[in-house]
Amino acid sequence: MRPFDDATRRNIAAACTAFARLPEDAAPEALKRAAVAVALTAAGQGDETALLLTLRASHLRAHGGQWALPGGRCDHGETPVEAALRELDEELGLRLTTADVLGTLDDYPTRSGYLITPIVVWAADSTAIRPNPDEVASVHRIALATIEREDAFDFVAIPESRRRVIRFHHQMSLIHAPTAALIYQFREVLAGRHTRVTDLEQPVFAWR
């Protein structure tokens, strides 16, 4: 178990610092930039550390009703860090600063034309979470011990692609890439492994 305390924050920041991201010049230039927050906070029960996962509002035009990390498209002139912090505020009412940023994971290119940059942040005050009903149907705290289970993720083949589809098993749901891929890489970073996820496939329903 990883208690939600300063020692855990320092350890995760150190793991993110030790992680060597793929170079920016490896990213496709035609994709639109986006950012998500791997937001770490108290699990709610006990003192364990958890990450925040949202269920997108069903009426949203893009990927409505799907699981997601808080985030969205970068505005013009915005950095991925700025976009991730803005989206956290807009979606969950969490107002964090660059001082709360612990690190950055690999960019993930999506089938729908985005290049997503995951920003790991530390949300010390979880009582401040106020989901925006226009964007978020519900918010879930996923204990880090959950994503570190051996059976948390699996990989399956689909006839439409040569790449493996990654799936994260959360309660009775299957969560797919890009969300599953980003959470998986964060799990690997916590373990000190430099595992790449850009070759992990999304299910066909997420290709548009």
What this model shows, in words?
The longest helix has 13 residues, at 6-18. It is globular, with a radius of gyration of 16 Å. The chain is α+β, with helices and mostly antiparallel strands and 208 residues long. The mean pLDDT is 91. A hairpin with a 4-residue loop joins strand 6 and strand 7. Helices cover 20% and strands 32% of the residues. The protein starts with 5 loop residues before the first helix and ends in an 18-residue tail after the last helix. The protein has helices spanning 6-18, 80-92, 144-147, 179-190, and strands spanning 32-42, 49-56, 67-68, 71-73, 101-104, 108-109, 114-122, 136-143, 153-158, 161-170, 173-176. Strands 1, 2, 3, 4, 5, 6, 7 and 8 form an 8-stranded mixed sheet that branches. A 3-stranded antiparallel sheet has the order 9-10-11, with helices on one face.
Q: Helices and strands in order, then pairings?
A:
Layout: H1 6-18, E1 32-42, E2 49-56, E3 67-68, E4 71-73, H2 80-92, E5 101-104, E6 108-109, E7 114-122, E8 136-143, H3 144-147, E9 153-158, E10 161-170, E11 173-176, H4 179-190
Parallel strand pairs: 1-7
Antiparallel strand pairs: 1-2, 1-4, 2-3, 2-8, 5-7, 6-7, 9-10, 10-11
Categorize the overall geometry. globular
Largest sheet: 8 strands, mixed
What is the alpha-carbon Rg in Å? 16 Å
- The end-to-end span amounts to 38 Å
**DSSP strand content:** 25-35%
Give the ordered list of helices and strands. HEEEEHEEEEHEEEH
Q: SS-based structural class? A: alpha+beta
**Total number of strands:** 11
Helix content: 10-25%
Average pLDDT, all residues = 91
Q: Spans of 5+ residues with little confidence (pLDDT < 50)?
A: none
Total count of helical runs of at least 4 residues: 4
